[in-house]
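Q: Start with the shorter request: fold the first protein.
A: Done. Sequence, then structure:
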Amino acid sequence: MSVFVRLLARELRLSLRHGSDTLAALLFFVLAAALFPLAIGPAPETLGRMAPGIVWVCALLAALLPLDRLFGAELDDGSLDQLLLCGLPAAAVAAAKALGHWLTTGLPLLLAAGPLAMMLRMPDIGIPWLIAGLLPGTAILSLLGTTGAAIVVGARRGGVLLPLLVLPLAAPVLIFGVAAADAATAELSPRPHLLLLAAMFALALPLCPLAAGAALRSAAE
């Protein structure tokens, strides 16, 4: 566990050193959402109805931005081999990477989602449930993104392949996350959709690091 904590601390220090990646993801999230009122008009009813989908789509795309650097730098300078020899299983290394990605990208997006939903005129009753869905949803996106980044590491045009791998897998997360916020806005129970998101997180938590670890071992060989 101490090795895992040190590896996570290393990821956080690297993220602070390259803080522009987090800032770029956050700015993309805000600016992309701000373009929708210009395209569909400023009518509060229309914006409020579409706000959950806008926030979720922008969060999904913003979470993809830092993924191409997740393992690429370590592969280029040879430190990926050192990470795999640090005493942790490859799956634990991938889990530390996923947690670091969520703390530096998913968590800032989660914090910005509430003000952004208010800007888009989303009804107040739905905003807490939107954030409640984003909490497991962004974690799932980090797990899926880490797995995709491990699969394409070292591949030519990996930055092009990565969204093609992650986006289809993230579609159910998007569907149920938006459905939870829509149900709350319509004064229905969002509980079934949130439970499905929690079930997907419980499934992704063990499987994604295992798959990413196997991909990392293959890339190192």
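Q: Next, the second protein, separately.
A: Sequence, then structure:
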Amino acid sequence: MVVPEPPRTPHVRAALRGDSAKVTPLELFFDLVFVLALTQCTALMAHDPTWHGMAQGLLVLGVLWWAWVGYAWLTSVVDPEEVLVRIVMFVAMAGMLVAALAVPKVFLDSGLIFACAYAVVRFSQIGLFVLASRGDPGLRSSVLGLGVSTAIGVGILVIASFTDGYLQGALWALALLLDMGGPYLFGSEGWKLVPGHFAERHGLIIIIALGESIVSIGVGAEVAELDAGVITASVLGLVVAAALWWAYFDVVALVAERRLSNAAPGRERNEIARDSFSYLHFPMVAGIVLIALGLKKTLGHVGDELHTVPAVALFGGAALYLLAHVAFRWRNVHRFSTQRVAVAALCLLCVPLALHISALASVAILAAILVLLIVYEMVRFAPLRAKLRRDLLT
């Protein structure tokens, strides 16, 4: 008599996704919840447009960004279409949703709710990584190290929820620093990723952040009468967003993806992914969120001067975005973009001017600066640009 084999328990496979793997609908669905988180961070800063409010918004954004980054790495290892992975990612989405809802009062009476929801998001990721690392000692070691830094970071956020003032802000900064510093402290050799998928995922999050700037235009326009000034400011805001998109996707993103694909698997590739994407994409997203804050404040009062913090957010956000591009390019191909540094400096010099001219004029100046940068690069580097795009797209 043949004894039937017991049914096998489904498990998460540790194998890499195929080299041609693309971002799945589930990952895009997950990112939609992150859109709400971005919107809430902008709203937090808009509600308190002071240096203190801006610092709080950027701290929350940093913590939420690192949670999103974890899932970009996760879905380059496990198959998001596995039933167990789907279920856990839905649980994580619920956690991210609750965390986003807690953002407006996270430094008042919603800190503990945020910390607990954030813990659900992070430990769901860690749990899937633990399952995926069975039979892979290198990946298991990296995951355990990440688990330690994550637990410490979450614990500090829980403690911060019972404090206030500068101590609370300092604890948040410490939690973010320790959590993001985990990959440096525990090494990068054991991680795995699919280069094309990983780069595509980060490119899509840039688009999502730019979408938040468009949403901010709509929200800002709601508080004002739809007249010629508001319409002009809205169109100029779209021009700014389009220029930011062009600056990233025309060549930079293509070069970065090719560099990541050509890097040796293991430590070299993982460190490029960590530095270029996990770390340096954060100031890009932060810059876009700050610009969104400036646009939101502009649309409310297009004829008035911007106050100091919104002016810094508008022009400083653009400078931060461009400087992150400079660092991104240097990390990938060790080439320095003089023109983008110069334009970033010009943006910062425009901050005092924005305090004495209309908000509409400020947006017009920013749009003109960014468009001129794009035109200059297209003309100045036309042969190189054409060659790069031809080589990288074939």
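Q: Describe the second briefly.
A: The radius of gyration is 22 Å. Confidence is low (pLDDT under 50) at residues 6-16.
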